[in-house]
Amino acid sequence: MNKRGSFDSKLGVVLASAGSAVGLGNIWRFPTEVGQNGGAAFILVYIAFVLFLALPVMVSEFVIGRSSGTNIVHAFRKLAPSRWWMTIGFMGVLAGFLVLSFYSVVAGWTLKFTVDAVAYRISGADPAQAFNSFVSDTWSPMLYMAIFLLFTHLVVIRGIRSGIERYSKLMMPLLLLIILVLVGCSIGMPGSAEGIRFLLQPDFTKVTPHVVLSAMGQAFFSLSVGIGCLATYASYFKKDMNLPGSAVHVCAIDTLVAIISGFVIFPAVFSVKGVHPDAGAGLVFITLPHVFSSAFAQMSWLGYFFSVLFYLLLLLAALTSSISMHEICTSFVSEHYNLTRKKAATLVTLVYLVLGAACSLSFGPWKDYTLAGMTVFGWFDFATAMFIMPLGGIFISLFTGWCMKRGLLTDELTNNGTLKVRGLKFLIFLIRWVAPIGVGMVFLDQVVKLFN
Ligand code: PHE
Fold first, then answer.
1. CA of residue 21 to ligand 1 center, whole Å
2. 324 lines ligand 1 (CB under 6 A)
3. Radius of gyration of the chain from Cα atoms?
4. How far apart are CA 262 and CA 30, in angstroms?
5. Are 389 and 225 spatial neighbours (Cβ–Cβ below 8 Å)?
6. Which SS3 state, helix, strand or coil, does residue 70 take?
7. Distance from the first to the final alpha carbon of the chain
8. Distance between CA 152 and CA 101 in Å, rounded?
9. pLDDT at 14 > cutoff 50
10. Could you tell me the distance, in angstroms and rounded to a whole number, from the CA of residue 417 to the centre of ligand 1?
11. pLDDT (tens digit, 9 = 90+) per residue, 40-75?
């Protein structure tokens, strides 16, 4: 067996976990959902889900990971009374493969837009046409995707301390700095008040059951919970880490970044006449290029600065998340098959290249290969965000709350009684009851609708 690494510092742990959480989900998916689902009302529902459902699942993952000190499949083998529980671990590894496969396609687009922004080539004339012709091409999106996967690979093979921790400590502060500069630029634009109002004024008539469901899916996706990603990171935590405290920090950073991204995007979007906030998935790749070119027509250097920083931000966020997804699979493959990290990571990257290529082709030559109306990309996204993540969340919280050896949960949460955790009883109540029942209800509702 290879010797396992560990994170060196508490800051490193929080930044790496926050790096996993903060990703395209915050900057690309969150504003899209807010735009389509009625602004501030969606944000409020979202925050409730983060606090009552996603946070307890995150703490559970931390407990499972640190107490077992191994990858997500072996963690269940070690801690669970029955081998059946390993299925949940396998589901996590499967999700690790599926999520990064479609994620790396969007990350590849981001890389292309970053390169274009730097080269002053973002097209403002007909951004929709430019975007569509790029993504429907066979080779170039695949090439960008492969380069992005290579970056991810290069960090993962260096291991925990000199790879994941070191790069998270470098990239996360940079990311936070960039987003603060951007929010300043965006709020300073003429007409931005309307965008701010959109974000702050809740319109509860827009909160339909569908919105509630999207908010939960979004909370799970954005916090990377339900597939053992954070459990994998926690298996490298030291024994004196404060698990509930770190989880609260990670949730807070992630939610703040998501909301601030809203403040970067919407004031800018509203400052251009004729552009709508509910533009959907194209918001970042079609609407924003249009905004860059019109809003900054007079001050093109500011437009240049804004667009370069924006896509760089998105790229950094995607990279710190992709590393964590890769790590779920690499740690499993290396420990299960007793391979060195380098060999395991290489195998995993090769699988990603193949699956990612299939996702990339879903926008071009394979556009018409659909099942129940969804392409390969659509299926991977749907299967993970709507199915595996909530299901994983239910079982992970049930497991931590009810099936682990008695006393282990409290021991882990309080570091064997040496740590005083405020609201400990409430947290355990959330883990045992609120998270599994809450997620279960939303999930069942979804399945019933699917079959109707
Ligand atoms: N949380 C990441 C984001 O917001 C996505 C992610 C999902 C990362 C699952 C790891 C595991 O983009």
1. 5
2. yes
3. 21
4. 8
5. yes
6. coil
7. 49
8. 12
9. yes
10. 32
11. 999 999 999 999 999 999 999 999 999 999 999 999
Which candidate, 139, 109, 104, places its Cα nearest to that of 122?
109
Q: Which residue carries 């609260």 as its tokens?
A: 248
Tokens representing 450 are 């699917």
Residue with tokens 């403040």: 263
What are the C-alpha distances in Å from 411 to residues 249, 256, 268, 431?
Answer: 20, 30, 48, 15
Over residues 22-43, the mean pLDDT reads 89
Cβ neighbours of 133 (radius 10 Å): 11
Q: Are 329 and 97 in contact (CB under 8 A)?
A: yes
CB of 20 shorter than 6 A to ligand 1: yes
User: What is the pLDDT confidence band of residue 406, given thresholds at 50, 70 and 90?
Assistant: confident
What confidence tier does 280 reach under pLDDT thresholds 50, 70, 90? low
In order of their start, the domains of the chain are: 10-451 (1.10.4160.10)
Locate the ligand 1 atom nearest the alpha carbon of residue 229 and give its number.
Answer: 11
Q: Which of 222, 230, 314 to mutate to test the pocket of ligand 1 (most atoms within 8 A of CB)?
A: 222
Residue 74 backbone phi and psi in degrees, to 5:
-70, -25
Size (the chain), residues: 452
Distance 218 CA to ligand 1 centre (A): 10
- Local structure of 39: helix, strand or coil: strand
Contacts of 392 (CB under 8 A, 6+ apart): 88, 91, 92, 95, 225, 226, 227, 228
229 CB within 6 A, ligand 1? yes
CA distance 262 to 419: 36
Residues 6+ apart with CB under 8 A from 395: 85, 88
**Which pair of structure tokens corresponds to residue 413?**
């949460």
Long-range contacts at 408-415 (CB < 8 A, ≥ 24 apart): 408/63, 408/67, 408/79, 409/63, 412/62, 412/63, 412/66, 412/67, 412/243, 413/59, 413/63, 413/243, 413/244, 415/239, 415/240, 415/242
Instruction: Give the pLDDT confidence score for residue 50 in this predicted structure.
Output: 97
Atom of ligand 1 nearest to the CA of 96: 11
Which residues are 374's β-sheet partners? 371
d(CA 23, CA 108): 14
451 Cβ contact list (under 8 Å, min separation 6) = none
384 lines ligand 1 (CB under 6 A): no
Q: What is the C-alpha to C-alpha distance for residues 197 and 194, in angstroms, rounded to an integer?
A: 5
- The gap from C-alpha 79 to its chain's centroid, in whole angstroms, comes to 27
Closest by CA position to 397, among listed 418, 389, 95, 233: 389
Closest ligand 1 atom to 324 CA:
10
